[in-house]
Amino acid sequence: MRRVVRGFWGPRPESAEALADRWQRTLDGLAELVPQAADAWSQVHGNGPAAAFTPEGKALLDALRAAQSAADWSDLTGTGLRLVGTGMPGWEAEVSGLAGGAPEFLLQSLAIVLHAPDAAVVPEEDVLALLARVWEPDFGDVSDDDVLDALEDEAGYAVGDPVVGRTGYLSPARAALVPDGLEAVRQELPGGGELLSIAAPGDSAAVVRAYERLRESGALAPLPRPMDRPVL
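The structure corresponding to this sequence follows.
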């Protein structure tokens, strides 16, 4: 089964050193939570084949600096990095990010895609909590193809809109707008944001209902464009 764990935020300029630290904490945390997903990593480039990659401090910093130097606009759009990990049979992890820039219209993001056997237990909520702690996003979600299709078809969700999935993360200002009686388990995280446990795998209808209520309450209002801050 393919699971997607994502976080999004607005402009937040950061140095390559700061980004390397966030990447290191992300990969270290992922190795603790899902050790079977990635024994070996490769870096995926825009052109050319993937190359073996050891995700350690200097290598991460060098990769981010190389990405910055290859794109004159990285200070505006953000610095991109994409890593793919292979592990036990049936397991794979992909981590991709675009961060550290100050775009006015393009959200910064970090996405973790986990492939696991259908019967495997995957701590997807813990992975989203990790992403929230490390990257301090404005909003985030745990989704799959069925959930995203249901949100698009039944609720008018469009790529780039703030969203929650089976699990959602909302920054403090968004969490303050969560309506009473929402069918979700709410867990406050360090920093004041909240993790919302909304539905089990396969229950796309519950996700659609929660998404519509959160959107109506303003908790999923988009950042104003042009964007001038990382969170609502």
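The beta strands are 2-9, 40-43, 51-53, 79-86, 92-99, 108-115, 139-143, 167-170, 185-188, 194-197.
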